[in-house]
Automatic annotation (TrEMBL):
<feature type="binding site">
    <location>
        <position position="34"/>
    </location>
    <ligand>
        <name>Mg(2+)</name>
    </ligand>
</feature>
<dbReference type="Pfam" id="PF00025">
    <property type="entry name" value="Arf"/>
</dbReference>
<keyword id="KW-0479">Metal-binding</keyword>
<dbReference type="GO" id="GO:0046872">
    <property type="term" value="F:metal ion binding"/>
</dbReference>
<keyword id="KW-0342">GTP-binding</keyword>
<dbReference type="InterPro" id="IPR006689">
    <property type="entry name" value="Small_GTPase_ARF/SAR"/>
</dbReference>
<keyword id="KW-0460">Magnesium</keyword>
<dbReference type="InterPro" id="IPR024156">
    <property type="entry name" value="Small_GTPase_ARF"/>
</dbReference>
<protein>
    <recommendedName>
        <fullName>ADP ribosylation factor like GTPase 4A</fullName>
    </recommendedName>
</protein>
<keyword id="KW-0547">Nucleotide-binding</keyword>
<dbReference type="GO" id="GO:0005525">
    <property type="term" value="F:GTP binding"/>
</dbReference>
<dbReference type="GO" id="GO:0003924">
    <property type="term" value="F:GTPase activity"/>
</dbReference>
<feature type="binding site">
    <location>
        <position position="51"/>
    </location>
    <ligand>
        <name>Mg(2+)</name>
    </ligand>
</feature>
<feature type="binding site">
    <location>
        <begin position="27"/>
        <end position="34"/>
    </location>
    <ligand>
        <name>GTP</name>
    </ligand>
</feature>
<dbReference type="InterPro" id="IPR027417">
    <property type="entry name" value="P-loop_NTPase"/>
</dbReference>
């Protein structure tokens, strides 16, 4: 899942243009949630370990200046 994302801008620019909003990424163990989160933040593939608890990141886009607090379990 996570590595299958295309570039960050095309995904984020297709979302409604709110000033900021929260997105929760839910899925089965080892589904690619953390990979997807860090792909959105850094636009690159990051090697992961199984998440204990959750990750939360704030992502700002350059195109529309919206900020996206993201978390995943
Ligand atoms: N082939 C392939 N592997 C992927 C893709 N996305 C993630 N992975 C791999 O799948 C494994 C699990 O990815 P994670 O992002 O850690 O999965 P997760 O859903 O956060 O897992 P938990 O934190 O254990 O719930 C890692 O080895 C990733 O490298 C993908 O799109 N394609
Ligand atoms: Mg994880």
């Amino acid at each position: 899942m996570g590595n299958g994302l295309s570039d960050q801008i095309s995904i984020l620019s297709s979302l409604p243009s709110f000033q900021s909003f929260h997105i929760a990424i839910l899925g089965l163990d080892w589904a690619g949630k953390t990979t997807g989160l860090y792909r959105l933040q850094f636009n690159e593939f990051v090697k992961t370990v199984p998440t204990k608890g959750f990750n939360a990141e704030k992502i700002k886009t350059h195109s529309s200046e919206i900020s996206l607090p993201l978390s995943n379990t």
